[in-house]
Design goal:
226 residues, alpha/beta, six-stranded parallel beta sheet, 10 helices, 9 strands, binds 2'-O-acetyl adenosine-5-diphosphoribose
């Protein structure tokens, strides 16, 4: 299963590419690239703290909770998300691969230290690791490779699945967007849940058009026989 920004839309977390999307109002190359961080780490941290504050005001919704229920008692269940808001884990999902990192974590590229940033939204300083190096947001930026272990786990999950749900993603960012295609090529059925048409719509075996917070709980109910 692969989720994207659309699953958190009804929690109030902005998506990236819609009319109200974050990339309509902010230029990604100024904020979400290694070059932007080298140029102005303070500005980039300001942007991520702004996003932390946005997300901290929100809660997981019925779609996140339904996926956590769906996982119960299912050995091979794997939830791969492009979202960095941490809502899947807050809703109780356990096997979650965060392909694009986590908004509430900082990382030191010098020594590899990682640290939770929960509760530091109001700070205006650049966080430093125990050795005093400047830390960066532990997220994947444009032009960066995805963490190899996360991608390998996601790929294995996709190619071994028999049912692959794709929820709330425009499927425009690779390699995440290749996962449903890999699943399909390996014989899995692909089900898309989205409010709008995407590049995956023609590939999907079943398209459930509508809001994730409405549709995903219905899928969980059918699957759980409740
Ligand atoms: P996008 O903003 O590109 O797409 C959001 C998708 O969710 C769209 O297809 C919408 O139609 C759909 N959608 C919106 N509201 C929905 C709802 N209530 N229920 C179901 N679907 C809904 O977001 P992503 O595809 O997640 O990467 O974007 C992928 C990546 O691009 C992000 O992880 C981020 C961004 O640049 C990085 O920052 C590395």
């Amino acid at each position: 299963m692969l989720t994207g920004a659309g699953i958190s839309a009804e929690s109030g977390v902005p998506t990236f590419r819609g009319d109200e999307g974050l990339w309509k109002r902010h230029r990604p190359e100024k904020l979400a690239t290694p070059e932007a961080f080298r140029r102005n780490p303070r500005l980039v941290w300001e942007w991520y703290r702004y996003r932390q504050a946005l997300v901290e005001k929100t809660r997981p919704n019925d779609a996140h909770r339904a996926l956590a229920r769906l996982e119960e008692g299912r050995e091979g269940f794997l939830l791969v998300t492009q979202n960095i808001d941490g809502h899947h884990e807050r809703a109780g999902s356990r096997k979650v691969v965060e392909l694009h990192g986590n908004l509430f974590r900082a990382r030191c590229d010098e020594c590899g230290e990682r640290r939770s940033m929960r509760g530091e939204t109001a700070s205006t300083t650049i966080p430093r690791c125990a050795r005093g190096h400047e830390m960066r947001p532990d997220v994947v930026w444009f032009g960066e490779a995805l963490p190899v272990p996360a991608l390998e786990e996601a790929w294995k999950g996709a190619t071994q699945s028999d049912l692959f749900l794709v929820i709330g993603t425009s499927a425009q960012v690779h390699p995440a967007a290749s996962l449903p295609l890999a699943a399909k090529e390996s014989g899995s059925r692909v089900v898309e849940v989205n409010t709008a048409e995407t590049v995956l719509t023609d590939v999907a075996d079943l398209v459930l058009r509508g809001r994730a917070a409405k549709i995903v709980p219905l899928i969980a109910r059918v699957e759980k026989g409740a």
